[in-house]
Structure formats: structure tokens, C-alpha cells
Design goal:
The protein is α/β, with parallel strands linked by helices. The chain contains 6 helices and 14 strands.
Length: about 210
């Protein structure tokens, strides 16, 4: 598998294409905006989208769900506690940007510990609430998509509706148990390693 990053939208969200090189199928992680840019990239490298995974329900991570669903006839997956955000502009925070229509409900509901079969591998869902009630990380061999739970040398905001500092700190404890060699693909900004975050992220290296 390989990962292609497409930076989209006014707050520079990382949309990821998780590509199975054997089959040319891909999963779309957090298509937050600019559906045309995402479609162009998929077309350019001749991929076949198999589904969408939202790491949480904020507008900057779900904004292109509907156009991609309509074009490729693929399901959207999100954790059960953020599922209502896909149709609720206040929960997704899109209401505050002037957007009042987002999309339809998800086809697949995710839970902690679920495994998604893709490209002869399993992607494990880890429920990591704190930034939102239904935030998740998705981990497989060698990498982890952390959404807005964990960034390089920082963590996601907890001062937005549904945020909780105690929950996100508990979620970080879950991530501390993962292999340190994992590459982190966050919702915004650059990729980094979990080992580097253990050394330099003040929220992860607390004793």
C-alpha cells in the first residue's frame, strides 16, 4: 500500500488516498473539500475508489463526501458517535461557515476495535474521543491516520463543541501503546513518526 496526500480547503486539511498497488483500488480518508481536486488525482493515477473513511465529523474533513459518493457510488464510514454530524450543520461546525447543507447519513458505522479489510491487510479502528466524541484513528502495519487527535508536536483542539480535554488525554494513552515506528498521517500539516512524538510532543512525553 502507498499513501497519497491531497491538501484541500481553506484550513489545509490532509485528504489521503490509501492505494492498493496490486488492485489500483483506494480508500479516501477525510475528503474535506475540493472534490474536483480529489477526483482529478484519482483519475490521473487511474484508481478505483472503494470507500470513504471520516476520522471525525467536522466540516473540513467531510465536505467532499457527497460529491465523491455520487460519482463513485461508494460508502462513507464514520464512528457511531460522530455519525449525526454528517447531516447536522451545527455538529459538523459547517453552520458557522455559512454552509447549511452537508450530505447524507453514512452507510457504515464504525466502532472501537473494528477491522476494515483492504488490500490483503486489516485497518484497525481506534476510538480516540476528545477532539470530537466520535474521533477515530485508523492504524495498519507501518502507519496511522490520526485525524485531529494527534498532530506533530501538538494535539487537536478541545475547546470546540463536543471537545473534552480529559477524553483526549485518555485517547493519547491508547496511542502510547502502539509501535513507535508507526508513521503518523495527521489531519493537518506534515507527517511524522510516533517515535518522534514520544520524544518531542509535550502531550505524549508527559510522565
Amino acid at each position: 500500500m502507498r499513501i497519497k496526500t491531497i491538501v484541500v480547503g481553506p484550513i489545509q486539511t490532509n485528504c489521503y488516498l490509501l492505494v492498493c498497488e496490486k488492485t489500483k483500488k483506494c480508500l479516501i480518508i477525510d475528503p474535506g473539500d475540493e472534490p474536483r481536486s480529489i477526483i482529478n488525482e484519482i483519475t490521473k493515477i487511474n484508481l478505483q475508489p472503494a470507500g470513504i473513511i471520516n476520522t471525525h465529523g467536522h466540516y473540513d474533513h467531510i465536505g467532499a463526501n457527497q460529491p465523491l459518493k455520487d460519482k463513485y457510488k461508494i460508502p462513507v464510514s464514520i464512528h457511531e458517535k460522530d455519525a449525526s454530524a454528517l447531516t447536522n450543520p451545527e455538529e459538523s461546525l459547517s453552520f458557522f461557515t455559512g454552509i447549511t447543507s452537508i450530505g447524507t447519513a453514512p452507510e457504515k458505522i464504525l466502532h472501537d476495535g473494528d477491522e476494515i479489510d483492504f488490500c490483503s491487510n486489516k485497518l484497525k479502528v481506534i476510538h480516540t474521543p476528545g477532539h470530537t466524541p466520535g474521533s477515530i484513528c485508523v492504524v495498519s502495519d507501518g502507519f496511522i491516520f490520526t485525524g485531529d487527535t494527534l498532530f506533530c508536536q501538538s494535539i487537536g483542539r478541545v475547546d470546540l463543541p463536543g471537545g473534552c480535554e480529559e477524553q483526549i488525554m485518555n485517547s493519547l494513552e491508547k496511542l502510547k501503546k502502539l509501535p513507535k515506528e508507526l508513521i503518523i498521517y495527521p489531519g493537518h500539516e506534515n507527517a511524522c513518526t510516533l517515535a518522534g512524538e514520544f520524544a518531542h510532543n509535550p502531550y505524549l512525553n508527559q510522565k
